[in-house]
């Protein structure tokens, strides 16, 4: 008997780094932490259920960072899922530090990035990070120094593939002159398309583009156009925002996050929502 395809499989697939084929609807593990992305979650067991349910639904790409909690998200992922199922890609990031709630300070010093990577390896209970992303360029440190250290960690076998986050096309090009880059993670959603040029660069060069705040950040699913298309399809505005991401480019891998199993299931169901040209035109207006 042939197994039924998973809900996430309806989004299609993308291959990361030429070797890791994953469903094109992932999970962002920022919101499984405490309020304000600080400290432990209010419901520890629900966070574990969310992670396990994501995998059950066919999600095989999970995005996190050492700054989520800080450290809490990575620890929860390992608690819920290690030893990891074959084919599951855990991507994490380093380069932001959290001196306190509401603080997200860049630290691109090579020594910090090395320490951050070692900490992520320990918390995730693995000897290699499949995809490690530089969380944000540090204005106080030349990009080439930060990326150069990550390239050395890759040569040492502690990182399989490298990605960047919160970068311009110029910064992407400068990094790629040093080491292969397989992904870019920038803020991007139907109401914030400032990274259109980066999406186009990713599509041109076969990089995965991971939109953060893929459904709109603090006000997810807001907007008259989203509401109109959602009503037409009998879907939620958040589901339409995710379907828009999937239709926008074959290189986009949305990573919506939540701390609720019910919201997770709603998000993954968006993989089956197909928008037509009229929908896309309305959302582009």
Walk me through this protein's architecture.
With 285 residues, the protein is α/β, with parallel strands linked by helices. Helix content is 38%, strand content 14%. The chain has a seven-stranded parallel sheet, with helices on one face. Helix 1 runs parallel beside helix 9 (261-269), helix 3 crosses helix 4 and helix 7 (224-233) packs across helix 8 (237-248). The radius of gyration is 18 Å and the shape is globular.
Topology overview:
Elements: E1 13-16, E2 20-23, E3 27-28, H1 44-56, E4 61-63, H2 72-81, E5 89-94, E6 96-97, E7 105-106, H3 110-124, E8 129-134, H4 143-155, E9 159-165, H5 169-176, E10 183-185, H6 196-205, E11 208-209, H7 224-233, H8 237-248, H9 261-269, H10 277-284
Parallel strand pairs: 3-4, 4-5, 5-8, 8-9, 9-10, 10-11
Antiparallel strand pairs: 1-2, 6-7
Helix pairs in contact: 1-2, 1-9, 3-4, 7-8
């Amino acid at each position: 008997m042939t197994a039924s395809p998973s809900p996430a499989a309806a989004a299609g697939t993308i291959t990361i780094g030429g070797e890791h084929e994953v469903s094109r609807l992932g999970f962002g593990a920022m919101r499984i932490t405490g309020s304000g992305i600080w400290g432990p979650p209010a419901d520890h067991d629900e966070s574990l259920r969310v992670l396990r349910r994501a995998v059950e639904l066919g999600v095989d790409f999970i995005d996190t960072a050492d700054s989520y909690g800080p450290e809490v998200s990575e620890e929860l992922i390992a608690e819920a899922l290690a030893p990891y199922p074959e084919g599951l890609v855990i991507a994490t990031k380093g380069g932001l530090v959290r001196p306190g709630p509401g603080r997200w300070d860049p630290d691109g010093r090579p020594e910090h990035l090395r320490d951050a990577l070692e900490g992520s390896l320990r918390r995730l209970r693995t000897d290699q990070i499949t995809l490690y992303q530089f969380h944000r360029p540090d204005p106080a440190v030349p990009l080439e120094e930060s990326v150069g250290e990550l390239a050395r960690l890759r040569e040492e076998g502690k990182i399989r593939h490298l990605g960047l986050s919160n970068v311009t096309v110029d910064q992407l090009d400068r990094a790629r002159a040093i080491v292969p880059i397989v992904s870019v993670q920038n803020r991007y959603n139907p109401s914030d398309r400032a990274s259109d040029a980066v999406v186009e660069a990713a599509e041109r060069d076969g990089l995965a583009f991971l939109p953060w705040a893929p459904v709109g950040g603090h006000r997810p699913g807001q907007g008259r156009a989203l509401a109109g298309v959602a009503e037409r399809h009998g879907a939620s505005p958040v589901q339409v925002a995710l379907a828009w991401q999937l239709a926008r480019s074959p290189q986009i891998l949305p990573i919506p996050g939540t701390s609720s199993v019910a919201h997770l299931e709603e998000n993954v169901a968006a993989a089956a929502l197909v928008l037509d040209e009229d929908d896309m035109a309305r959302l582009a207006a």
